[in-house]
Amino acid sequence: MTDIVFIEGLRIDALIGVHDRERHAPQPLIFDIRMHFDNRIAASSDTLADALDYEAVSLRLADYIAQTEFMLVETLAECCADLILTEFGAKGVRLKLGKPDALANASAVGVEIQRGSFGP
User: Fold this and answer.
1) Where are the domains of the chain?
2) pLDDT band at residue 120, thresholds of 50, 70 and 90?
3) Mean pLDDT of the chain
4) N or C: which end of the chain has fewer CB within 10 A?
5) Which CATH architecture has domain 8-116?
6) What distances in angstroms separate CA 32 from CA 44, 54, 95, one per listed residue?
7) What pLDDT score was predicted for residue 1?
8) pTM for the predicted model, two decimal places
9) Shortest CA distance to 110 belongs to which of 96, 93, 89, 90?
């Protein structure tokens, strides 16, 4: 069993970066998130309480990120993955965090991480 709940292209503004120009105002970040979660109970009950609520995940991440001022996207990615694993019961998380405005000659830069399990 490898069920995935995903969120693609989630835009959240954050104060992040190591350069002075990045420390004055929030900048957009783009998240693609894949969460390993057993969907069979939710499918059987047809009840949101039994599902991994992607709207709740996105709202919680936005609230959390608004309170941070990390220097590195690596740190933010780790903290967001940990939040999803501990607060939402996902068994595994694949998280891609992109900074679309970081380099003038690139569409985005960032990190991809995988934490937890994606097996049975």
Assistant:
1) 8-116
2) low
3) 95
4) C
5) 2-Layer Sandwich (3.30)
6) 27, 12, 6
7) 60
8) 0.93
9) 96
Residues forming a β-bridge with 36: 4, 92
Q: How far is Cα 112 from Cα 96, in angstroms, rounded to an integer? A: 4
The token pair that represents 113 in the structure block: 């991480």
Can you tell me the distance from the alpha carbon of 80 to that of 73, in angstroms, rounded to the nearest whole number? Answer: 10
Six-digit token string for 83 = 């939040």
Beta bridge partners of 29: 12
pLDDT tens per residue across span 29-76 = 999 999 999 999 999 999 999 999 999 999 999 999 999 999 999 999
Please, are residues 16 and 22 in contact by the beta-carbon 8 Å criterion? Answer: yes
Tokens of 51: 């599902």
**Tally of CB atoms within 10 A around 52:** 21
